[in-house]
Amino acid sequence: MVQSVLAALAAPTRFRIVELLRDGPQPVNDIAARLALSQPQASKHLRVLRSAGLVAVAPRAQQRLYALRPKPFREFHHWIEQFRQVWEARFDALDDLLERMRRKEKKG
Questions:
Q1: Residues 6+ away with beta carbon under 8 Å from 79
Q2: What does pTM read for this prediction?
Q3: Number of separate domains in the chain
């Protein structure tokens, strides 16, 4: 799942679409207009996001509204959180080392 999320978000246009959808569901024409895309281009990107499970589509009258699906983002957050914890521990160890070096430099 994480690989499909990363692959889908790797394209800048799809990333921008996800950012737009944070504000709530939107029809494809609004997405296309806000990103200066043609409707077919926007639809193509939305298809990729939909097949990655990141967006859902719901019909409303003559339109289709696209909305973010929270589950894949929660799963991605959980995955990336593991890396954050590792890096925080490494940065803390580096901070400790630098502090010891500063104290040693002041003494010497």
A1: 2
A2: 0.77
A3: 1
Gap between the Cα atoms of 95 and 60, Å rounded: 54
In degrees rounded to 5, what are phi and psi of residue 69?
A: -100, 125
Give the model's pLDDT for residue 60: 86
At 11, give phi and psi (nearest 5°).
-80, 125
- Report whether 54 contacts 8 (CB < 8 A): yes
40 is a domain residue: yes
- Say how far apart CA 91 and CA 88 lie, in whole Å: 5
The CATH number of whichever domain residue 17 belongs to comes to 1.10.10.10
Specify if 10 maps to a domain: yes
Task: Name the pLDDT band for 72 (thresholds 50, 70, 90).
Answer: very high
User: Inter-axis angle of helices 2-9 and 70-107, to 10 degrees?
Assistant: 90
Q: Considering the domain boundaries, does residue 81 fall inside one?
A: no
Q: Which residues form the domain of 45?
A: 2-69
